[in-house]
Amino acid sequence: MVIKGKDMIIAIYGMGLIGGSIGRTIVKNTGHYVIAADIDPAAMLKAKMLGACHEEIDEMNISSADIIIIAVNPYQTLDILEELPTKVKSGAVIIDTCGIKRSIVSKMEGLKSIYPEVEFLGVHPMAGREFSGISHSTTSLFEKAYFIITPVHTGIEALVKIKTLFKEMGCEGVVTASADYHDRVIAYTSQLAHIVSSSYVKSPMSREHHGFSAGSFKDLTRVAKLNPIMWTQLFLSNKDYLLEEISQLIEHLSEYKEAIAEGNFQELQKLLSEGVIRKEYADKLAKEKINE
Amino acid sequence: MIIVIKDYQEKKQIENLMNWIKSLGLGIHFSQGEKTAVIGLIGDTSKVDIDLVRSLDIVESVTRIQEPYKNANRKFHPDDTIIDISGQKFGGKYFQVIAGPCAVESEQQVIAIAKAVKDAGAGLLRGGAFKPRTSPYSFQGMKLDGIEILKKAREETGMPIVTEIMSEKYIEAFLDVDVIQVGARNMQNFELLKELGKLKKPILLKRGLANTIEEWLMSAEYIMSGGNMEVILCERGIRTFETYTRNTLDLSAIPLVKEKTHLPVIVDPSHASGLSRLVEPMSLASIGAGADGLMIEVHNNPACALCDGPQAITPEQFLNLQRKMDVMLPLVNKIRS
Question: Which of A235, B145, B288, B325 lies 20 to 30 Å (CA to CA) from residue A94?
Fold first, then answer.
């Protein structure tokens, strides 16, 4: 293998949708050397065919990796994290790609205190598709996407390395947040949305939707096609904040239920108008943030 | 740009950050205060990713600095700078007095004045060996002989000596002087300032005759950017339309400058007004304005002085003034060094 001056060795654990897309994007856009691993040999085969990596990870090459990306489910991420620090070199940067951060960051903080020469960083790429597996990976998954980072006493050089890599992958920008804030917000913006979608599609009427919907059904059920294993892990890793959101939603649903049951025209119209105002306000705030 | 570091024990992390900043080709001014530390960046700071730096857990805040002066900027160095010359201190809670004749005229004259002002409370001795006279026919100073006389006075009295340099070609002769003065007319002699920046010796930088506070601080910046951080500023009056006084003493500059810079600021009331009878009221006013010290011209026989006689006060007048000053110092929380 020929590694030029500034090029790095990047290791990716997990050749699924995310890991596969990361590998393919890096190989396509940069000169970095990618080594990868997956517990499924079929996935590894596909990874090599699709150009998601140059070589498989082994005990030797992992010790030369500059950046290690863990792209597996939350519980497995914690397992891999536990084993990594002794295998990588001093100054190596270990990142995850999980949709929740507190449990990951907590693990990373524990490891950092034992292995201070290793760099850790929590990452959540705000990109994805409702399909799983490397067959659905693309080289443009991260175009214009944002990455959220949750630092774990991370040094400036490591932060710069990671941000530069993300930019090479086409990302729009990096947002810093605390693990706690991340999980609080994601409970609503991502997790609750998936629960709502998954619940909504369970009505027997979903079978009859064809010809009777102009987009609402499609919009609302898009993410019902999720990966059950991963999302179960995500929800249980964010139990407290997610339950808060579900409780609030149940309350709001009950308000609609009551108003309709009572035939209360005023109340129902009021509830709906409030919804319009909230949506417009949320959109306005988002626009302001973009313009900042 | 300044990066405020939280009161963190993580010396290694701070070191890593500074090394990274240096790798970008930027200069660093590090200031450790009581509670926080400030890293001041000097150079093209557009290369710095502010968002990433803010993500570091040792970083409290990152702010861009508008002012063109960095090393001299109080934002880079929040605490007062205290300059110690053989135990005589300038800055902070200390009040310092430099006194002596305008020009060195003879060994006997200088030693007599030195003893008198020292007894009255002055900490350093001034004396001009190289004089910046408007007329080429006026007494130009005893030059190198003058410096030798000042050194003798230092031997006799133990007082550190302050004297003006006119050109960088004399720097070697000034290496044994305790404080090198840059006169008002040389405040923007940038080549001279650059050379003085290479020394490790306190520089007394007078404000130019018609220069703004920002220009004055940029001249200090010239010296400091060369590596010499010990600059004492001196307000000596600025040119206005008023003709009763030689210059107009800009007292408002004192609190303003102390806001903007951490360097000590003293006042020369003698050159400012040009009138000996104004030296006392202007000295007392300077204390009230928050000055860190005074530089006063004292001559045993002002009528016969070879230079600036009208603004000199006698040793006796100087002593009386010191006594009045001692009453005022506690009011502004200052003590004699």
Answer: A235
